């Protein structure tokens, strides 16, 4: 038998991009919450809170009062990002044991898959590779978007230096409170503020790279497990010579695994339902704010590279969970059809038929991740895009 599941197939190593990012920002559920972690977390929280306060002050005390709605919308985007990454960190802290348990279950499934037949091993390997691609998508998107902000500042400073008129260029154009505004262009103060915003940029990147692929990876793993059950139940009644007792045992194993899958989905819903409701609402506003920044730059004859990259990252932020939740729902529907067409009508054992009936009844309920008010799927993503476009039109009518 060809082996597609190797000895080193573990969640930690297979999806190392996401797990490494979480270890860098100390949000990984395996990181012990000891004194060292509390010091590190305190420093991260202080820098993030300082950026949040400075951004909020600049919006309220300067941008809105001066009617500079383009800069206000730019800083609102960063405020939402600052709040979002802190909220995601809190989710990992609050549900640390639960997330650890989900990772353990995935590792156990990988361990069990070593004894599967070649076809089932191919399914597990296929969905694991899809999970790796999710990590790669987020790594490229988040890193390329965040890198534009410091690179643009360095390039503009280098350009001014080459022209003989050196000028300090911050990562974010902010108005600071009190005396800090008067001294923000003093080299020492400028370097401190630049390092603070650079650290915030790195921290935000690590949170998006580490946190956002996790739930899609779990959903893909569930799709693989359901496909395996789909394959098994389609073979359950294929051989009429198999004794009823063997059929009952095989069916019992399928039902037990199916119950584990339902419980896995419920845990994901418990942990992340509020978060995805929050993500849907923030994405509804982030998309038009980014689009407004891009169109305003184009009107001024400029190309706003940082917010063009940000626009694609914002789309990815909600599209990816919608896409994979939709895939999970489709896989669950395919499994329901597989139960119905497995050949149960040719069998006479009443206990087996009752079990099939119960499975069909339970499978009517869609297997999908949801927000508080609606299921996360491609239809929800399309509805969110329609709301964002309406807000963008209002912004253009009011401020353009």
TrEMBL record:
<feature type="transmembrane region" description="Helical">
    <location>
        <begin position="39"/>
        <end position="60"/>
    </location>
</feature>
<dbReference type="GO" id="GO:0005886">
    <property type="term" value="C:plasma membrane"/>
</dbReference>
<keyword id="KW-0716">Sensory transduction</keyword>
<keyword id="KW-0552">Olfaction</keyword>
<keyword id="KW-0675">Receptor</keyword>
<protein>
    <recommendedName>
        <fullName>Odorant receptor</fullName>
    </recommendedName>
</protein>
<dbReference type="Pfam" id="PF02949">
    <property type="entry name" value="7tm_6"/>
</dbReference>
<dbReference type="GO" id="GO:0007165">
    <property type="term" value="P:signal transduction"/>
</dbReference>
<dbReference type="GO" id="GO:0004984">
    <property type="term" value="F:olfactory receptor activity"/>
</dbReference>
<dbReference type="InterPro" id="IPR004117">
    <property type="entry name" value="7tm6_olfct_rcpt"/>
</dbReference>
<keyword id="KW-0472">Membrane</keyword>
<keyword id="KW-1133">Transmembrane helix</keyword>
<keyword id="KW-1003">Cell membrane</keyword>
<feature type="transmembrane region" description="Helical">
    <location>
        <begin position="186"/>
        <end position="208"/>
    </location>
</feature>
<dbReference type="GO" id="GO:0005549">
    <property type="term" value="F:odorant binding"/>
</dbReference>
<keyword id="KW-0807">Transducer</keyword>
<feature type="transmembrane region" description="Helical">
    <location>
        <begin position="72"/>
        <end position="92"/>
    </location>
</feature>
<keyword id="KW-0812">Transmembrane</keyword>
<comment type="similarity">
    <text>Belongs to the insect chemoreceptor superfamily. Heteromeric odorant receptor channel (TC 1.A.69) family.</text>
</comment>
